[in-house]
Design a protein that fits this description.
Bound molecules: iron/sulfur cluster, FE2/S2 (inorganic) cluster
Length: 980
C-alpha cells in the first residue's frame, strides 16, 4: 500500500494506524494520549493531521491506499497547538523541580516539540486534594491532563475496572471506584495506571523527592520556586525554562541507573527496567517485556523493599550449640567442604542431598546439580517443582512429549475459548490473567472456570463449575467421553496425529455423565454444555495449576486435560494448547537445567548410559547411574537415617513442604545442614552453616518463565554486605572439594550448558541481550519455538499419545472427626510464605497476615464472624488464624492462604502424595474447626482491594467528553494560538 506524507510517497503495510505509520517513518507528531499497547483513546486531540483534506486524529484513523496526509499544514499545526494548549490548562509546568523530569515526560516533550512559548488557556488548579492514600503511588489532580491513559489501562488492560473519569463534572478528574479514596478502593496496586501516565499526575511514591536534584526541597521552598518560574514565564517564555529543566534532567543521568531485570516472583516472566539511585529503588518501569509489555502486578511493581531490608543476611553464620556466630567466608566454606567430604567418606555420596532454588537462575541450578553429580557423586537432587509442577510435566510427557506450555501467553490471548481448571490465575499469575480478562471483555473470548472457590476468574466466567474437591479427573474424562461418543471429536486430527485412540476410548467406559454428576456434584446439563462449548470452539487453551496438581491424582488429572485437548484437536495451532501455569519465576528453568533426581539438563535421563557418557566426558568424572531421591523421599530418608546431610539454597522447606511438622523433625535430625539464603528463614533455624546469598537484583543470569521463555537479568546493584551470588558460592564449595571450576561470569556457565543440552543448543547470552528472549527448544542456529508443536509431537514417530487414566479416590477425606475440607494456596499480594513480600510495608498494610476463609453457611452454623479466632486441627498438626466470612468458599470448605511464617497452613497438610511424582496432596486436607471464643477485627483491613466497588465501563468513554457543551474538536473553531 502506498501513502503520501507531507508530499513524499511511502510504502506501508495495510491495516496500520496512521499514527503508527508516521511514528515508524520518524515523522514528528504530537501524541499525548496514544500508547501503542493501549490503542487509540482519542482524548487529547494533539495528533490531528489532514488526511485527504480532512482534519482527523491520526491515532484513530487507519492508513488507506493512496491516502495523502499532511502533518504540519497550518490547519493541522494549529489544531495540534490548540489541543495541547487545553492540556497545559490542566498541568503546571514546573519541570526543573519535578521528579518526572527524566527525559521521558510526554507533556514536557510535547511542549518542546510544539515549541510552545506561552499558553493561551491559563493553568487552572482543580478543586481536589492530592490523594496519597495508596501506599505505593499518589494522584495529583492538579497535574492531571485528563488523557485517560490510566483509565484505559485499568479498564481494558489490567481489567480491574477501578478507574473512570467523570466527564460530565465541571471539573473532571480521575476517580477510583467512582469517587473513593485510592487506598479504600478496589485498586489492586498493579501499577499499570502509574506506568502509562504520561506526566507526574500518577507517580510512584518511591520517586517523590528522590529522582531530581531539587525535588527533595521542603514544600514551601518548592512552591516558592514554582512561583518564580510562573512569574518569569510571561517574560522569557517556556523555551528558556525548558532549557533549564533539560540541564537538570541531563545532570540526573549520572546518578540514575536503569537496568533490565526479570521478575523474581511468579512464573509469568514479566521483565522491566529498575530505576535506581544508589541502592534506592526509584521505580519499576515495564515497557518492552515480551511477556508483559507495560503490565505488572503489585509484587513486580512495588514488592522490592526486601532487597534493602535491614535483616538481610550479610555474613556467613556457623552454629554453636543453640545459636549462631558470624564467621568469615573462608571459615564457613572450609567447614562445608570438610563436612561434605567426611560424610561422603563415612556414609557414601548418597548420604548427601541437594535442593536447588526455583527462585535462582538457570546457571545456579545447573551448577548445583553438577556439584551433586560430578563432585559428590549423587543424583539426590531436586527443586520445588516437586511441590507443584511435576504432575503437570508428567501429564505432558505422557501425551505430547515435552514438559512445558505448548504455546505462549499470546496464544492464550487469541484463543476463542479459555478453560481454567484449579488455578486462581488473577491472583497467582496476575499479568497472564489480564490477557484473558481483556480478551474476554473486549474480544468475545469465552471463559470456563472450574474451581472450588469463586475467585475473580470464576466471577467473570461464562460457565463456572464448582466440583467436589479432588474430582477433576472424573468430570474431565466424562466430558471427553461425551465428545467422543457424540461424534464431536476432531477425527481427522486424531487420525493423523494421535496414537492409542481405541484403547483410550475403551478406558473411558466408567466415566459416564451420570457417574460424573454423582461424583463431582455437577449437573449433567452443565457437563454437556462444557463438552459442546469445547468441541465447538475453533481454538481452545486449557490453563491449570496447583488445584489440579496437588492431589494424589495430580499427574493423572493433568494427563486427562491433555487427552481432552488431543481429542478436540487443540494442539499444533496458534491459540490452542496446554498451559500448566508455573508458580515460581524459575521453576521451569530449575527443572530444565537438571535440578531433578532423574534428569540431567534438558530432561536427559541419568540412567541412559549414552547420555551419562556424554556428561562424564564433558565433566571428566564418572557419574552415578541410579536416579536419586526426590524432596519427598529425602525427608523419609532422613527419618530412616539414610540421609545425613543436605545443602539447600533459596527454599523455605520447613514451611512450604507438606506436613511441616514431619519435615521440620527431619531437618532437625540431619548431621550437617547447609542453608544458603538472603534472610534468616524458618528453615535456617535447623542449619549448621548459613551462607548469605544475593537476590536477583544483585546478580546476572537467566530465568525461564512459564511460556518456556528464557530471559536475561542484569545486575542492578552490588551484593549487600558480604552476601554473594549463589553461583559463586556453589563454585567455591565445589572447588574446595577439588572440582577446579573457573566460571567468571554466568555466561560462561551457559556456554557449557548449551552444547550438552539439545533443548538449549542455541542459547547464548548475545541472543538474549537486553529484552531479547528465546522460547525453548532452541536450535543451534538460534531459532526457537514459541508454538511448541508445529511440525510434530515429541515422540519418535512424531505422534501424540492418548494415555488412559483410571479414577481413584482422593486421600484424607472428611470423616466424623475431621469434618471440613481445607483448601490452601497463594494470594495476590504475597508470594508463597511471604518471606520477601512481608518486607514491603505497603503489602503488609494491605494484607498483614494469613486468615481462614469460611462460607456464610458454615459461619452461621458455627457462630463465626469475620475476625473470630479459630483453630484448625488435622491428624498432622494445628494452626490458629482469624476467620474471614466470604462467599468465595462454599459449604464445608475452608481456604487458608499460605502466607504465614507463624501459622503456616502446612502444619495441617499430610504426607500423601501424587502417586507418580510424589507431589504432596496439599489440596486434600481434612480438619476439625474449633471456634476459640476470641474475636478481633477482620484480618483483612478495610484498605484491602477486596472491599472495593469496581466501576466497569467500556474504557475511557471519550464520547462523553465530546458531548460536553464546552467541547469542540480543535481545528473546527480555530482561535489564534501564539506560536513560538
Ligand atoms: S488496579 Fe489500581 S494500580 Fe492497577 S491500573 Fe487500576 S487503579 Fe491503577
Ligand atoms: S492521571 Fe490518568 S488521566 Fe491524568 S494524566 Fe495521568 S494517565 Fe492521564
Ligand atoms: S509476580 Fe508474576 S505477574 Fe507479577 S510482575 Fe512478577 S512475573 Fe509479573
Ligand atoms: S494521540 Fe490521538 S487523540 Fe491523543
Amino acid at each position: 500500500m502506498q501513502i503520501t506524507v507531507n508530499g513524499k510517497r511511502f510504502e506501508v503495510k495495510s491495516g496500520q494506524r496512521m499514527i503508527d505509520v508516521l511514528n515508524s517513518l520518524d515523522i514528528p507528531l504530537p501524541q499525548v494520549c496514544y500508547h501503542p499497547q493501549l490503542g487509540p483513546i482519542e482524548t487529547c486531540d494533539t495528533c490531528m493531521v489532514e488526511a485527504d483534506g480532512k482534519l482527523v486524529r491520526a491515532c484513530a484513523t487507519p492508513a488507506s491506499d493512496g491516502m495523502s496526509v499532511v502533518t504540519s499544514s497550518p490547519r493541522a499545526g494549529a489544531a495540534q497547538r490548540q489541543a495541547f494548549d487545553r492540556i497545559l490548562g490542566n498541568h503546571l509546568l514546573y519541570c526543573t523541580v519535578c521528579d518526572n523530569n527524566n527525559g521521558n515526560c510526554t507533556v514536557h516533550n510535547t511542549t518542546a516539540l510544539l515549541a510552545v512559548e506561552h499558553q493561551q488557556i491559563p493553568y487552572q488548579p482543580k478543586p481536589y486534594a492530592v490523594d496519597l492514600s495508596n501506599p505505593f503511588y499518589r494522584y495529583d489532580p492538579d497535574q492531571c491532563i485528563l488523557c485517560g491513559r490510566c483509565v484505559e489501562a485499568c479498564q481494558n488492560l489490567q481489567v480491574n475496572e477501578t478507574l473512570s473519569i467523570n466527564w460530565e463534572d465541571p471539573h473532571p478528574r480521575v476517580l477510583w471506584d467512582g469517587g473513593a479514596k485510592i487506598g479504600e478502593s478496589s485498586c489492586v496496586s498493579c501499577g499499570h495506571c502509574v506506568t502509562v501516565c504520561p506526566c507526574n499526575a500518577l507517580m510512584e511514591k518511591s520517586m517523590l523527592g528522590e529522582a531530581g536534584y531539587f525535588t527533595s526541597l521542603p514544600k514551601t521552598a518548592l512552591d516558592g520556586m514554582i512561583d518564580v518560574v510562573k512569574g518569569i514565564e510571561p517574560e522569557i517564555g517556556y523555551g528558556a525554562i525548558l532549557e533549564l529543566s533539560e540541564i537538570e534532567s541531563a545532570m540526573r543521568e549520572g546518578q540514575v541507573k536503569c537496568t533490565k531485570t526479570v521478575c523474581t516472583y511468579c512464573g509469568v516472566g514479566c521483565s522491566y527496567d529498575i530505576w535506581t539511585r544508589g541502592r534506592h529503588i526509584l521505580k519499576v518501569e515495564p515497557e518492552h517485556g515480551p511477556a508483559n509489555g507495560v503490565s505488572t502486578c503489585i509484587k513486580g511493581k512495588f514488592g522490592w523493599d526486601y532487597v534493602n531490608s535491614a535483616d538481610r543476611l550479610t555474613k556467613p553464620l556457623i552454629r554453636e550449640g543453640d545459636s549462631f556466630r558470624e564467621a568469615t567466608w573462608d571459615e564457613a566454606l572450609d567447614l562445608v567442604a570438610r563436612r561434605f567430604a567426611e560424610i561422603k567418606k563415612e556414609s557414601g555420596p548418597d548420604a548427601l542431598a541437594f535442593i536447588s532454588s526455583s527462585k535462582c537462575t538457570n546457571e545456579e541450578s545447573y551448577l548445583m546439580q553438577k556439584l551433586a553429580r560430578a563432585v559428590i557423586g549423587t543424583n539426590n537432587m531436586d527443586n520445588c517443582s516437586r511441590y507443584c509442577q511435576a504432575p503437570a510435566t508428567t501429564g505432558l510427557f505422557r501425551t505430547v512429549g515435552f514438559g512445558g506450555d505448548s504455546g505462549s501467553i499470546s496464544d492464550i490471548e487469541q484463543a476463542s475459548l479459555v478453560m481454567i481448571v484449579g488455578s486462581n490465575a488473577a491472583e497467582n499469575h496476575p499479568v497472564l490473567a489480564t490477557r484473558v480478562k481483556r480478551a474476554h471483555k473486549l474480544h468475545g473470548q469465552k471463559l470456563i472456570v472450574s474451581d472450588l472457590r469463586k475467585n475473580e476468574m470464576a466471577e467473570r466466567a461464562d460457565v463456572f463449575l464448582q466440583p467436589r474437591p479432588g474430582t477433576d479427573l472424573f468430570w474431565l474424562s466424562a466430558v471427553t467421553k461425551y465428545i467422543l461418543d457424540n461424534g464431536l471429536a476432531k477425527q481427522a486430527f486424531l487420525d493423523q496425529w494421535v496414537n492409542g485412540v481405541a484403547e483410550y476410548r475403551e478406558s473411558l467406559a466408567p466415566f459416564t455423565l451420570e457417574m460424573a454428576s454423582e461424583r463431582c456434584g455437577l449437573p449433567i446439563e452443565t457437563l454437556i454444555q462444557v463438552a459442546r462449548t469445547i468441541a465447538e470452539a475453533p481454538t481452545v487453551c486449557i490453563l491449570w495449576a496447583m488445584g489440579v496438581t496437588q492431589h494424589v491424582m495430580g499427574s493423572d488429572t493433568s494427563t486427562a486435560i491433555s487427552n481432552l485437548l488431543l481429542v478436540t484437536g487443540n494442539y499444533m495451532r496458534p491459540g490452542t494448547g496446554a498451559y500448566p501455569l508455573r508458580g515460581h519465576n524459575n521453576v521451569q528453568g530449575a527443572s530444565d537445567h537438571g535440578a531433578m533426581p532423574n534428569y540431567f539438563p534438558g530432561y536427559q535421563k541419568v540412567d541412559d548410559a549414552e547420555i551419562r557418557a556424554k556428561f562424564e566426558k564433558a565433566w571428566n568424572v564418572s557419574l552415578p547411574a541410579k536416579p536419586g531421591l526426590d524432596n519427598h523421599m529425602m525427608i523419609d530418608a532422613i527419618h530412616d537415617g539414610r540421609l545425613k546431610s543436605m545443602y539447600v539454597f533459596g527454599e523455605e522447606m520447613s514451611l512450604v513442604d507438606s506436613n511441616a511438622n514431619y519435615v521440620s523433625a527431619a531437618l532437625a535430625k540431619l548431621d550437617f545442614f547447609v542453608m544458603q539464603e538472603i534472610f534468616f528463614t524458618e528453615t535456617c533455624r535447623f542449619a549448621d552453616v548459613i551462607l548469605p546469598a544475593s537476590p536477583s537484583l544483585e546478580k546476572e543470569g537467566t530465568f525461564t518463565s512459564t511460556e518456556r521463555r528464557i530471559q536475561r537479568l542484569y545486575q542492578v546493584m552490588e551484593p549487600l554486605g558480604e552476601s554473594r551470588p549463589d553461583w559463586e558460592i556453589i563454585q567455591d564449595i565445589a572447588n574446595r572439594l577439588g572440582a577446579g571450576w573457573d566460571y567468571k561470569h554466568p555466561s560462561e556457565i551457559y556456554e557449557e550448558i548449551a552444547p550438552l543440552t539439545p533443548l538449549m543448543a542455541g542459547v547464548t547470552y548475545e541472543r538474549l541481550e537486553g529484552y531479547k528472549s528465546l522460547q525453548w527448544p532452541v536450535a543451534e542456529d538460534g531459532s526457537d519455538q514459541p508454538l511448541l508443536y508445529s511440525k510434530q509431537f515429541q515422540f519418535p514417530d512424531g505422534k501424540a499419545r492418548l494415555f488412559p487414566v483410571p479414577w481413584s479416590e482422593p486421600s484424607n477425606q472428611q470423616d466424623a472427626e475431621y469434618d471440613l475440607h481445607l483448601n490452601n494456596g497463594r494470594l495476590l499480594e504475597h508470594f508463597h510464605e511471604g518471606n520477601m513480600t512481608y518486607r514491603t510495608e505497603g503489602i503488609k498494610q494491605k494484607t498483614p497476615c494469613t486468615f481462614v476463609e469460611v462460607s456464610p453457611e458454615l459461619a452461621t452454623e458455627r457462630g463465626i464472624e469475620s475476625g473470630s479466632w479459630v483453630q484448625l486441627t488435622s491428624a498432622y498438626g494445628k494452626v490458629r488464624a482469624q476467620a474471614v466470612v466470604t462467599e468465595r468458599v462454599q459449604g464445608k470448605q475452608l481456604y487458608m492462604p499460605m502466607n504465614s511464617v507463624e501459622e503456616p497452613v502446612n502444619r495441617v497438610t499430610s504426607s500423601y502424595t501424587d502417586k507418580v511424582t510424589h507431589t504432596p496432596a496439599y489440596k486434600e486436607t481434612s480438619v476439625h474447626l474449633k471456634v476459640l471464643g476470641e474475636r478481633g477485627a477482620n484480618p483483612l483491613p478495610r484498605t484491602n482491594s477486596r472491599f472495593g466497588q469496581p466501576t466497569p465501563q467500556k474504557g475511557v468513554e471519550v464520547e462523553r467528553k465530546w458531548k460536553r457543551n464546552d467541547y469542540t474538536q480543535p481545528g473546527n473553531d480555530l482561535v489564534q494560538i501564539k506560536i513560538g
